[in-house]
Design goal:
This protein is α/β, with parallel strands linked by helices and 469 residues long. Helices cover 37% and strands 17% of the residues.
């Protein structure tokens, strides 16, 4: 029996992500609750392919005092349905939701979905514990900082919760409560050098004012895990799960060169067979010494989130860097013998055939190993989402808000034309002889071969079938 069941809800049919990743946010909350003596567990309904009814039945087996659901925008409909099922099964169970969408739109979510009792706005560790404490002593969770709640017929917010200043004071994520285990998840072959592989988050907060980014959960104040804590997580997962490859999912590693060098030195001194990829912005920089240490420490790829590769589109997205900076960053990455990947968005406000041609030209001349192309998605927590009137049409509801689905169509396009444009960009890049040769070389690695072949098959099926209307 668990007092607190944390649920990663299923996604609506047709919006499943191509690869599931461990819900690190829930694992961190679970670890904090466990350290405070609260019996907590995590149910990853998405990875287990549970629908809302089966997810609620599974969670109800523990007869919990509280169920907490994390709600990214694509999961809002199924998370709400799961909450409603939970209330039917356990009327006295308190339902708390958090994550990007509720943090950005707390009043709207509470007003629409009556089965939800509280919204945890922002970081959830301390808030979840204090809600549990209030309920155990039959107090008022509305007195907890960082929540939204109903007060009679009025929706109110409590005082904001300040961000956690020292991330290293948090316990390690509670990987041991996770089912499936970390090694049973399927990371993307684009972000995997060897298997087993998993993801880590090494910072919180986004200090950049780019308008397309969602800052509703962690805010703008950057807080970093120390190098020793990052290595501790790596070593723990290597000893426990034999994981050898890590994708660092935030853009903080290149911000602090001293921290980066310390991490790489810890990996080298340990003698463990570890490799990792990281994410960065093109306006971050390293010294020649930093680049050497990064490569020696086992970094095999850097992923740059560019959003766009045309100056006008970058300006519309509110990006604080230029195309020239992006090209220079990619060149420096390649010069350090580290792979380079960019992630771009198709179909943003102001997209035209001319801007798509500029993207095609960028992909042709940039020193790149991989590209990931998503569709522009107006997430509620992003500044740009509030300024789209007259620039295009939003299709479907929150359940379609995924970078893998067309949900915003700029003026002059149709959903079919956007799908065709994305396919053409992918084909132009991945059918290049140099790119194909690099992937053929990676097939020599037995541990990655199966994943790469499966990805190639899926790519061929998506890129060469007749696009739907």
């Amino acid at each position: 029996m668990a007092d607190f069941v944390l649920i990663n809800p299923p996604l609506p049919p047709g919006t499943q992500m191509p690869n599931y990743l461990p819900p690190l946010g829930l694992l961190s909350i679970a670890a904090f609750l466990l350290r405070q003596g609260v019996d907590a567990t995590v149910l990853d309904a998405a990875a287990l392919s549970l629908d809302p009814t089966r997810a609620a039945l599974k969670a109800a087996e523990s007869a919990p005092l509280i169920c907490g659901l994390t709600v990214p925008t694509p999961a809002l409909p199924t998370a709400a349905e799961t909450a409603a099922k939970l209330k039917q099964l356990m009327p006295d169970c308190t339902i708390v939701v958090g994550g990007a969408h509720p943090s950005a739109r707390p009043e709207e979510v509470l007003d629409t979905y009556r089965s939800i009792d509280y919204i945890a706005i922002g970081e959830g560790e301390v808030t979840a514990w204090e809600i549990h404490q209030e309920l155990e002593r039959r107090g008022e969770p509305g007195a907890v900082r960082g929540v939204a709640f109903r007060d009679g017929g009025v929706i109110r917010r409590s005082k904001p919760r300040p961000p956690i200043a020292d991330l290293d004071e948090l316990p390690l994520p509670a990987w041991h409560v996770l089912r499936p285990t970390p090694t049973e998840y399927e990371p993307s072959p684009q972000s995997t050098y060897r298997l087993p592989s998993t993801i880590l988050v090494t910072s919180r907060g986004d200090p950049y004012a780019d308008g397309y980014r969602d800052q509703s959960v962690f805010g703008r104040k950057l807080r970093l895990h120390g190098a020793a804590r990052i290595f501790e997580m790596m070593e723990f997962l290597y000893r426990r799960e034999a994981i050898v490859d890590f994708a660092l999912m935030d853009e903080s590693l290149l911000i602090d060169e001293g921290r980066l060098v310390e991490l790489c030195r810890l990996i080298q001194r340990s003698g463990l067979p570890l490799s990792f990829s990281c994410q960065a912005r093109p306006d971050q920089s390293l010294s020649a010494f930093g680049w050497r240490e990064l490569a020696k420490g086992g970094c095999w790829q850097i992923v740059f989130h560019l959003a766009a590769a045309e100056p006008g589109m970058l300006k519309r997205f509110g990006a604080r860097f230029t195309v020239e900076q992006a090209l220079a960053a990619l060149k420096a990455t390649r010069a350090a013998n580290i792979g380079a990947q960019v992630r771009l968005l198709v179909g943003g406000p102001g997209e035209t055939r001319t801007t798509l041609r500029a993207t095609r030209h960028f992909l042709r001349r940039a020193p790149l190993d991989d590209v990931a192309l998503g569709y522009f998605t107006p997430y509620p927590g992003a500044e740009i989402a509030d300024g789209l009137r007259g620039l295009g049409q939003i299709y479907n509801g929150p359940g379609a808000r995924s970078e893998w689905l067309v949900n915003f169509v700029p003026t002059g396009f149709t959903p079919q034309k956007l799908r065709q444009a994305r396919r053409r960009l992918y084909r132009r890049f991945y059918l290049r002889a140099d790119v194909m040769l690099r992937y053929l070389r990676r097939l020599r690695q037995p541990v990655a071969r199966a994943a790469l072949l499966a990805a190639a098959k899926a790519f061929s099926r998506r890129m060469f079938r007749r696009p739907s209307t």
